[in-house]
Amino acid sequence: MDYPKFNLTPEEKETFISLILEIATVVEIPGKVKVVEQDPDDDAILETAIVGKVDYLVTGDPHLLDFKKFAGVKIITANEFLMISEI
What we know:
The chain is of the alpha+beta class. The chain is 41% helix and 10% strand. The relative contact order is 0.12.
């Protein structure tokens, strides 16, 4: 949320986090997934999706999108997700 491309004010970040926490399930990750060689920080994102038992990981990150699917989690773009959710 601190990426310049999001251009969020501190208040907008706080509001966003509050909204997400109302609907999200918080999971702890053991840090065992070590598969994103180009960007090891992305391992935590992938592991969160796995531990959270999600069907889809929606991302714009090319390192994650390269996997297409990992440990049963389909990794897709926001546009792809919108296309399948309109059915």
